[in-house]
C-alpha cells in the first residue's frame, strides 16, 4: 500500500509538508513532482521520465491519457455534455449502461442490476455490505485474513491490516475473519474451520449475511486464491444460503486477463464490486452489481452527490468499446502476464528468500526479509520506474503495469527491477 516505507528525505517545496496532512504516503516513496503522463510513462517537473508499473494502484489499466479515451472525453466536454447529475438520467449514463450490458454482462450470461454507489472502491463495498445485510436481515460478514476492502468503517471492518483498522478509533464489529487460501501453507484442509464454526451452535459465530472475498489479494501481498478454492467457497455459500461478494475493485476490469477476475473459476457471485479502472481514464467511478432479486433498495435509501459523474461514463463506455468488444485484449493481457511472470521467476531463481507470485498482470516479488522490498522500490525509483510494496509487512514488490504496456516496456521494467534487486539484496 506504499511506494516505500520509512522516512525519506526529500527536497519537495515546503508547501507539501507545511500544508498537506501527514497522512500522505505515496509521495514519501516517490519524492518528486509529477507533471505529465502518457500511456505507461510519467514525467516530472525536471523532465525525468518514469516507467509506471503502479498504474494508479490499478486505476489506469489502459494507461495515462489514452488518446482515444481522451478525445471522447474532450468531445463530450466541448459539446457542453452534462457533467454532474446525481442519478438523473443522462445520455452519457444511458450509453454506459447499454454498452456495459451489451459487451460485459450479456456475453457472460450475467444477470446483474447496476448500482452507482459513489465514486470510489470503498463506496462500492459499503453498498454491497449494506445490501447483503438488508436482504438477509443478518448482521455479520465473513472476511478473509489479509483482505483489503477500503478505508470507511464498513469496509475497514472486513479489512485485515491492523494499522489501518486501528485508524477507525472505534470497535470494528459484525465481521469475522477466516483463513484465506493457503493461510496454513496447505496443511489444513480448506474450509475445515469455516464449515465447523458455521455448523456448531456453540462456536459463537452469528449466521453471516455474506462472505466478501478478493480472488487475488492486491494490498494483502498478491495472495492468489486457487480456482478450486474459489469454487469451493462459492459452493459453501450457496449450500448455507450466504451471499457471496467478490470485491473486484483492484483485480477487475481485465487485470487478471478476463474482465472479471472470477470468470476463470467459473463462479457467479451474488454481488460484485468494481471501481479503479472502470472509468478507464483514472476518473472516479464505481459500480456495485447484484442479482436482480437482491435489488431490495427503496428509492434513495443509499444516496450520494457524486454517483453520476458523466465524464467517467463517457470514458468508461469508450474503454469498453475499444478493449472489450473482441476477446483479443484479454488474450493479450494473459500473454503479457506470462511474460512478466517469466521475468520475475528468472530474477527470483537467482536469490534465496525471493519468490514470484501473482496472476495475470498482477505480479510481484516476495522477500523473506521484508525490508528489502521497500529498498528495491526505492532503487527502482532512482532507476526510473514506479513500483509499490504490498503485504502485511510490505514484503512484496507489486507490479501492476497498465495492461496496454508494450512488450518492450514490460521488458524494460523487468530489467530495472532485476538491477534494483541486484543492487539491494
Ligand atoms: N477493494 C479493494 C480490493 C481494493 O484494492 C481497494 C483499494 N486499494 C478498495 C476496495 C478501496 O478502493 P478505494 O481506495 O477507491 O476506496
UniProtKB/TrEMBL annotation:
<dbReference type="InterPro" id="IPR015421">
    <property type="entry name" value="PyrdxlP-dep_Trfase_major"/>
</dbReference>
<dbReference type="Pfam" id="PF00202">
    <property type="entry name" value="Aminotran_3"/>
</dbReference>
<comment type="similarity">
    <text>Belongs to the class-III pyridoxal-phosphate-dependent aminotransferase family.</text>
</comment>
<keyword id="KW-0032">Aminotransferase</keyword>
<dbReference type="InterPro" id="IPR015424">
    <property type="entry name" value="PyrdxlP-dep_Trfase"/>
</dbReference>
<dbReference type="GO" id="GO:0045303">
    <property type="term" value="F:diaminobutyrate-2-oxoglutarate transaminase activity"/>
</dbReference>
<dbReference type="GO" id="GO:0019491">
    <property type="term" value="P:ectoine biosynthetic process"/>
</dbReference>
<dbReference type="InterPro" id="IPR049704">
    <property type="entry name" value="Aminotrans_3_PPA_site"/>
</dbReference>
<dbReference type="GO" id="GO:0030170">
    <property type="term" value="F:pyridoxal phosphate binding"/>
</dbReference>
<dbReference type="GO" id="GO:0047307">
    <property type="term" value="F:diaminobutyrate-pyruvate transaminase activity"/>
</dbReference>
<comment type="pathway">
    <text>Amine and polyamine biosynthesis; ectoine biosynthesis; L-ectoine from L-aspartate 4-semialdehyde: step 1/3.</text>
</comment>
<dbReference type="InterPro" id="IPR015422">
    <property type="entry name" value="PyrdxlP-dep_Trfase_small"/>
</dbReference>
<keyword id="KW-0663">Pyridoxal phosphate</keyword>
<dbReference type="InterPro" id="IPR005814">
    <property type="entry name" value="Aminotrans_3"/>
</dbReference>
<protein>
    <recommendedName>
        <fullName>Diaminobutyrate--2-oxoglutarate transaminase</fullName>
        <ecNumber>2.6.1.76</ecNumber>
    </recommendedName>
</protein>
<dbReference type="InterPro" id="IPR012773">
    <property type="entry name" value="Ectoine_EctB"/>
</dbReference>
<dbReference type="InterPro" id="IPR004637">
    <property type="entry name" value="Dat"/>
</dbReference>
<keyword id="KW-0808">Transferase</keyword>
Amino acid at each position: 500500500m506504499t511506494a516505500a516505507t520509512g522516512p525519506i528525505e526529500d527536497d519537495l517545496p515546503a508547501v507539501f509538508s507545511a500544508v498537506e496532512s501527514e497522512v500522505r504516503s505515496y509521495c514519501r516513496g516517490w519524492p518528486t513532482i509529477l507533471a505529465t503522463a502518457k500511456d505507461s510513462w510519467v514525467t516530472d517537473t525536471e523532465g525525468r521520465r518514469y516507467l509506471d508499473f503502479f498504474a494508479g494502484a490499478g486505476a489506469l489499466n489502459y494507461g495515462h491519457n489514452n488518446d482515444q479515451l481522451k478525445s471522447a472525453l474532450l468531445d463530450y466536454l466541448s459539446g457542453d455534455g452534462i457533467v454532474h447529475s446525481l442519478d438523473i438520467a443522462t445520455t452519457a449514463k444511458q450509453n454506459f449502461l447499454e454498452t456495459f450490458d451489451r459487451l460485459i454482462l450479456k456475453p457472460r450470461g450475467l444477470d446483474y442490476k447496476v448500482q452507482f454507489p459513489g465514486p470510489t472502491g470503498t463506496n462500492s463495498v459499503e453498498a454491497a455490505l449494506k445490501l447483503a445485510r438488508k436482504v438477509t436481515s443478518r448482521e455479520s460478514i465473513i472476511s478473509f485474513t489479509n483482505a483489503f476492502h477500503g478505508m470507511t468503517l464498513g469496509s475497514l471492518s472486513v479489512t485485515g491490516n491492523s494499522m489501518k483498522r486501528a485508524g477507525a478509533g472505534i470497535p470494528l464489529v459484525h465481521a469475522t475473519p477466516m483463513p484465506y487460501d493457503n493461510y496454513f501453507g496447505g496443511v489444513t484442509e480448506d474450509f475445515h474451520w469455516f464449515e465447523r464454526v458455521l455448523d456448531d451452535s456453540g462456536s459463537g459465530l452469528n449466521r453471516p449475511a455474506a462472505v466478501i472475498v478478493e480472488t487475488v489479494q492486491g494490498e494483502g501481498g498478491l495472495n492468489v486464491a486457487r480456482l478450486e478454492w474459489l469454487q469451493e467457497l462459492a459452493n459453501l455459500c450457496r449450500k448455507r444460503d450466504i451471499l457471496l461478494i467478490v470485491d473486484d475493485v483492484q483485480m477487475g476490469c481485465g487485470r487478471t486477463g478476463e474482465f472479471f477476475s472470477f470468470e476463470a473459476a467459473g463462479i457467479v457471485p451474488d454481488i460484485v464490486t468494481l471501481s479503479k479502472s472502470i472509468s478507464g481514464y483514472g476518473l472516479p467511478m464505481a459500480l456495485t452489481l447484484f442479482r436482480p432479486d437482491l435489488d431490495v433498495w427503496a428509492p434513495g435509501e443509499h444516496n450520494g452527490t457524486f454517483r453520476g459523474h458523466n465524464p467517467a461514463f463517457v470514458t468508461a463506455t469508450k474503454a469498453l468499446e475499444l478493449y472489450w468488444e473482441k476477446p483479443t485484449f484479454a488474450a493479450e493481457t494473459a500473454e503479457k502476464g506470462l511474460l512478466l511472470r517469466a521475468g520475475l521467476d528468472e530474477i527470483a531463481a537467482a536469490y534465496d528468500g525471493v519468490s514470484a507470485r501473482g496472476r495475470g498482470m498482477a505480479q510481484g516479488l516476495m522477500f523473506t526479509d521484508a525490508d528489502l522490498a521497500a529498498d528495491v522500490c526505492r532503487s527502482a525509483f532512482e532507476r526510473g520506474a514506479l513500483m509499490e510494496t504490498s503485504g502485511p509487512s510490505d514484503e512484496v514488490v507489486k507490479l501492476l503495469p497498465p495492461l496496454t504496456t508494450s512488450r518492450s516496456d514490460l521488458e524494460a521494467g523487468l530489467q530495472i527491477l532485476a538491477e534494483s534487486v541486484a543492487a539491494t539484496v
